[in-house]
Amino acid sequence: MQVRHYLRHLDYVLFAIVVALVSYGVVIIYLATKNDPLLTSTYYLRLQLQYAAIGFVALVLLTLVDYERFRRWQWPLYAFTVVSIAAVFLLAEVTRGSRRWIDIGFVNFQPSQLAIVLLTLGLGAFLANNLDSLGSPRPTLVTMAAVLLPAIMVFREPDLGTATVLVMLGLGLLFFFGTRWTHLAAIGLTLVVVVAVVLGVLPACGVKVVEPYQLDRLTVFLDPSHDTSAAGYNVRQSLIAIGSGGLAGRGDLATQTQLQFLPEHHTDFIFAVAGERWGFLGTAGLIALQALLIWRALRIAALARDMYGSIMAGGIATIFLYQILVNVGMTLGIMPVTGIPLPFVSYGGAALITSLMLVGVLESIHVRASDALAARERVG
Amino acid sequence: MAVLGGVALVVFSIILFRLWFLQVLSAQQYVSAAENNRLRSIRVPALRGLILDRRGTTLVGNRPALTVGLRLMDVPNGRLASTVDGLARLLHTPVTQARESLARNAGYGLIPVAENLSEAALSRVRTLAASMRHFKEAKAALQIREDDVGFNMALLPEGELAPALQALARIVKAKPDELYETLVRRAGYQYDLVVLEEDVALNLVSQILERKQSFPGVEIRKDHLRDYPQGTIAAHLFGNVGEVTAEELKTKQFSHLEQGDRVGHAGVEYTYDEWLRGQDGESRVEVDAFGRPKRAVSGGSLAQPGNNLVLSLDLKIQRAAERALQRAIETAHQQHYWRANGAAAVVMEAKTGALVAMASYPAYDPSVWQTGTSKDFQRLASAGANYPLLNRAIQGSYPAASTFKAIDAIAALEQGVVTPLSTFMCDGSFEAYKQKWTCWVSPAGHGHMNITHALAQSCDVYFYNVGLSFYHRKGTELADWAHRLGLGKATGIDIPGEAIGRVPTPAWKRSYYKKGTWDYDWHPGDSINLSIGQGNLEVTPLQIAVAYAAIANGGKIVTPHLGLKVVDADGRSVLKVAAAEPRSVDISPGTLDVVRQGLRMAASSSAGTSAAVFSGYPVAVAGKTGTAEWGARDDCAWYASYAPADNPKYVVVVFVEQGGHGGSTAAPAARLIYDALFGLKSGTNVVTGRTD
């Protein structure tokens, strides 16, 4: 495929949205961390720019590859996912109470994040290859089983947030595959029961599945103002930060951020930093960008040349929407505290690179969709 | 697709709605919450006012002092004990003592240090707690709540922390240092500065600062402490300054204060606290999430320093009085009264009650209140040191002995028991109701005595007769006169803690002794003993000064006071301390004349008991000696006097515990004080031999 041709069929709107989101993130990370003690003011900014550069390279590479090539690799991709996550338990050191990263020399590699991309490609391929079983429970069961294995492993790292993203990915893929709604309803019901058992019944019987801090975080959003745990404090400070931003923001008077009242201000609570500094105008602008992102992803799912592309684009749209909902909802006190970063905006290499790779997959689908469209037009 | 699009629409709508609600509708509330987060008011303590003598010399001032403390949150976990130890070595404080004082300063209440103990461990802890030393009638500091073990530092006697932690560590199988760290961190607020040591020398502080890297979390704070430029002079009168206690907060005087305020706890610091304290200021600072101050913010208020208190005390006279007491003790020792080790002197303006000097021996260094260790206080409260903290001038209750005879004389003349012309024959002893009393000159006698001579020569037999007459008259005339002249009740001096003393009456005996015992009833001997100021009579030196002032000033019972006025920093008068209007006692001029004459003769006529000390003295002194029998102890020496005799200006009372005779020990000390009062340089003349 010629470069000219390739360039003509890129989704520039999507690309512009993503560049805008990443830039928004880089600027707000800088503003959030420039006064952090012990580090130079541009410490996080530089790192995030490096990650963004790596991410955009990965994005472009994935765009150049025809996603159809991954169709044959569904099981190797899946096997690599599971093995790499398993390797975490053997190789990774515990940082801040959990094992997530493997040091591979030049960069810390986080298999659970890469798993999002690999499962998208692998399970998307599996479903696209089983279109004739549509309606039978087998693809549904296989997909959920295939998602749950790595999800449970990630949960044990422990990284509850990413584990739920993997499950949501499975649900999103199934949804765009066209699974019967009864199957989805059954999965939903099962999940509700599992959550109820894990959070309610088992602790009552004395079996500890989730750590107390995780339970705290999950339930604190129900009533943040009367909670004294660390999670409750975080949410309260986040609400104060966002609320005090007002319509136009507090600018350099953003004391919640600068005086460290807002915890995790460059990662999980980055949205609150934007809210305090830039106010409603800033946050609404960000939400608009994110809405555009979802719209663009859904549009690609509709335009895709084949079901493989469609399923993957839909799955990607689902998990972006899920992460935005959970992260922003957490900072607004309407969702549990789960430690899911805000896509493209939160500081963090693995998540940023993963998100940009997913955009690469979307662009790849878009380029081929436009190809097919053009070809059809030529035939027609 | 449409479905997920719809879901997305709903999600984004909810988020936008919520953002609108938070950022547009409720912004104001969150802005103030953010301001509350970042702004802290820090109290700027007001500088306490000075205490000056009547000439403006500073008796109590302030000095800057450096406090070394730890900000617990900045001390890395696991390093608290070693940090404290290192600092203690630099400060030359024993390590165990430094650890304990930090733990005490961190906070009180029951602090759990070990949780979820087994029943076996708990029972060992119980044994340990039972074996621990604890305060009388208090629980042991080591306590068990359910299956947790905790310390209450307030209940822990000095020096007990280290052994207790060691023993507990063996039971719960932890390191003592870990338990210590848990205790301190849980007791203290993580962002507060917990004081390790106050008033640290500058060179030690700079040593700490040079090695700040090795002591993470250490901080130096500048405070002000009370300073006593005159050393031990007048130490008993000032009282100490410290944090207001929980009990004090319940009293009327301090009810408007807050915990952490510093107030005067005794002496004039207590009485005039309101004026001395000043008004604390407030500085507003921006703090970060950990409570660390980042920068000052405008607003707040300046601290208003306290006003200065001018005392009626004259430093020169005070110093002379204290020196005189010291000399009196030495004199007593020279006369083989080896046990003499306590004394008091009062110098008061006869007409106003303003105290020019008030001294108590032994003295102590008042700076002990700032920097004293518990060992210092143990010594100050010990019998061996003869309780230096006691202000004997107002807190010592002693038999008045012969100084009471002047009061006796007033009562006898006023009640018509005797006339100035009545005489009694003294042959050295006195018999009544099959009992025999002797005069102090026995086996010799005074011969025929009228009241003036009886006072001058302190004839016991004369007053035994008076006492017997009062007994026959029934009633409580003598006691009533003693009360009228201020004995047996508070003088109302403007420092707290004075003793009331006691004037015995039949009613008092009935309330004090058990019915059916000999002591329950009033006997002739009670009246006879009272007539020479012995028996159950107890007075303070200040009460005697008030009674003699009344003789000197014509029957006015003054309220003794130390406070003269309150002035601001520029010397402008803020408040004139109004001493209570003196209470007048109706004594006929004739009676006063006779008694004054007797007292003057005592100090001047050849047979007068203090004539050896005062005859030929340039100022006419009138005064009564006293030699008190004080239980099984050696006799105590009194001298109660005023001068000049014709127009009395000052009352001087000297008392020496187990000092022997009034004439040979107390009167010479009074003379030294008069020297200072009247600018004389007469020196002392040694008086030996028996006087009264």
What order do the helices and strands come in, and which of them pair?
The complex is a heterodimer of chains A (380) and B (692).
Chain A: H1 3-8, H2 12-33, H3 43-64, H4 74-91, E1 102-103, E2 108-109, H5 111-129, H6 137-155, H7 160-177, H8 181-205, H9 212-220, H10 230-245, H11 255-258, H12 270-303, H13 307-331, H14 349-379
Antiparallel strand pairs in A: 1-2
Helix pairs in contact in A: 2-3, 2-12, 3-14, 4-5, 4-6, 5-6, 5-7, 5-13, 5-14, 6-7, 7-13, 9-10, 10-12, 12-13, 12-14, 13-14
Chain B: H1 2-25, H2 27-38, E1 39-44, E2 51-52, E3 58-71, H3 80-90, H4 95-106, E4 110-114, H5 119-131, E5 142-145, E6 148-152, H6 161-172, H7 176-187, E7 193-200, H8 202-210, E8 218-227, H9 235-238, E9 241-243, H10 246-249, E10 262-264, H11 267-271, H12 273-277, E11 281-287, E12 293-301, E13 308-311, H13 315-334, E14 342-349, E15 355-361, H14 368-371, H15 374-380, H16 392-395, H17 405-414, E16 424-426, E17 429-432, E18 435-438, E19 447-449, H18 451-457, H19 460-472, H20 477-484, H21 506-512, H22 524-531, H23 541-553, E20 556-557, E21 563-567, E22 573-576, E23 583-584, H24 589-604, H25 611-614, E24 622-628, E25 636-643, E26 650-657, H26 662-677
Helix pairs in contact in B: 3-4, 4-7, 5-6, 6-7, 13-26, 17-19, 17-20, 17-24, 18-24, 19-22
Strand order of the largest sheet of chain A: 1-2
Quickly give the CATH architecture of the domain at 315-368 and 389-677 in chain B.
3-Layer(aba) Sandwich
Cα gyration radius of chain B (Å)? 33 Å
**Average pLDDT number of chain A:** 87
Chain pair forming the biggest interface: A-B, 44 and 33 residues
Order of helices and strands of chain A: HHHHEEHHHHHHHHHH
